[in-house]
Specification:
Layout lengths: L2 H6 L13 H16 L13 H15 L1 H16 L16 E6 L5 E7 L3 E6 L10 H6 L4 E6 L17 H15 L4 E6 L1 H12 L8 E7 L6 H6 L5 H20 L1 H10 L1 H12 L6 H12 L3 H7 L9 H4 L6 E6 L7 H10 L4 E5 L6 H4 L1 H17 L11 E5 L3
Parallel strand pairs: 3-4, 3-5, 5-6, 6-7, 7-8, 8-9
Antiparallel strand pairs: 1-2, 2-4
Helix pairs in contact: 2-15, 3-4, 3-11, 4-11, 6-7, 9-10, 9-13, 11-12
Length: 408
């Protein structure tokens, strides 16, 4: 083609992009913020790449070089990981038991509840594929000063499965109400992790009359306000990487739904790979191997069919508007290395909830209540005392309060 022809040639007109949903716009902004707020410090090349980078390489290596070779390298790394000094190695994870009870939720689903301690009432609600035992350090330490109520989400732990397979956020919100009803307490503080935080926002949307009445305060730990997969994708700054990550996650859970028994077999065969995945996506840079193993065992204890039925509830929801209607004291806590519900999501929630406190736990991941339990327990205790003992009638400050904290 002649040069003059090239100049004359026109590029085909691009089709206009569809308008983004409110949550999608926010996630795009969150991805940009993540570059500043969630980025690790530059690695010292003399000591080699970090475990997350090495772990990702091992997973890729397992796919490219063959499962046998990949698992051999992976196990070598895990052997070194598990031999590290571990101050939590003797901790009796999952062995602290409370006074048991079983209650019926709105649709008849049986919920298993335990309570420990006496006094001001805290209700703890756990995240996806975990159980109430994940609140190990809170069960151990906080009952000295509070009445602590824990329950297993439907389909998790010792709770029953719903007859109609209803694992919607609305069902989880109704379960939370059933537990609050059961406590008989005039005022409670709800402490919710991950998926339970999403359900707590649904609770506020569904039962606004409870806000400020029985629910006096809210603690959201490593949680988000919109579509969990978009939140996970926002933890990477590259648009292409975010798209790929979302596609992989969606495809993985479609596989779970279509063939849960085979997925369960793969999970059992790849127990070391499961540990590595828990280590990479659940924790900060130097977690306790005993804590990682405890979380990994808990995740593996949830029926894979429940995974497939619960996960759709974490997609395509948007509680952005609920945030601005929250009119009770709220503490938002997040690990700055959380790859599942990143810091940018927590910061957005804290900015939109009037007068919220944002607690950033340095070098903690998605399991901040384990990794930074001493700091978090102290914050929860101080917050709960202030909220539940307060008789002040003056308006609360609407200003955002931010604090960074780490173990000394």
């Amino acid at each position: 083609m002649a040069a003059s022809d090239k100049k004359a040639a026109k590029k085909p007109a691009r089709k206009p992009k569809p308008a983004k949903k409110p949550a999608e716009k926010l996630v795009a902004a969150m991805a940009a913020k993540a570059a500043d707020t969630g980025r690790d410090k530059p690695a010292d090349r003399r000591h080699g790449p970090s475990l997350p980078v090495r772990g990702a390489g091992i997973v890729a290596g397992g796919l490219l070089l063959g499962v046998g070779a990949g698992f051999a390298i992976e196990r070598a790394l895990l052997g070194h990981e598990r031999r590290r000094d571990d101050s939590e190695a003797e901790e009796p994870f999952g062995e602290i038991r409370g006074r048991p009870a079983t209650i019926a939720s709105h649709d008849g689903t049986r919920l298993y509840v335990e309570e420990l301690g006496k006094g001001l009432c805290l209700v703890f609600s756990h995240g996806f594929s975990l159980t109430q035992d994940i609140w190990h350090y809170q069960r151990r330490d906080l009952p000295e000063s509070f009445r602590c109520v824990f329950f297993d989400q439907r389909g998790h732990g010792r709770s029953g499965t719903p007859g109609a397979d209803d694992y919607s956020l609305n069902a989880l919100a109704c379960d939370l109400k059933a537990v609050i009803d059961w406590t008989g307490a005039d005022r409670v503080v709800v402490v919710a992790h991950s998926m339970a935080g999403m359900a707590a926002l649904e609770f506020i949307d569904t039962f606004p009359e409870e806000m400020g009445a029985r629910v006096a305060g809210l603690v959201l730990i490593d949680s988000t306000f919109a579509d969990a997969i978009r939140g996970m994708a926002a933890s990477v700054t590259s648009r292409a990487a975010a798209t790929a990550k979302r596609a992989v996650l969606s495809t993985g859970f479609k596989f779970l739904a279509q063939d849960p028994h085979r997925a369960h077999q793969l999970r059992r065969r790849g127990s070391d790979l499961g540990y590595l995945g828990t280590r990479l996506f659940g924790f900060g840079s130097k977690p306790s191997p005993a804590q990682v193993a405890f979380v990994d065992r808990t995740l593996a204890g949830t029926d894979v069919e429940v995974w497939a039925k619960v996960f759709p509830s974490l997609l395509d929801f948007d509680h952005s508007e609920v945030l601005e209607r929250i009119d009770i004291p709220t503490l938002v806590a997040v690990g700055d290395k959380d790859r599942l519900t990143p810091l940018a999501a927590a910061r957005h929630m804290a900015e939109k909830i009037g007068g919220a406190r944002l607690l950033i736990l340095e070098d903690a991941g998605h399991m901040a209540m384990l990794e930074e339990h001493e700091v978090l327990n102290a914050e929860i205790a101080t917050f709960a005392r202030q909220v539940l003992r307060s008789t002040a009638t003056r308006p609360r400050s609407r200003r955002l309060s931010i604090r960074r904290a780490s173990k000394q």
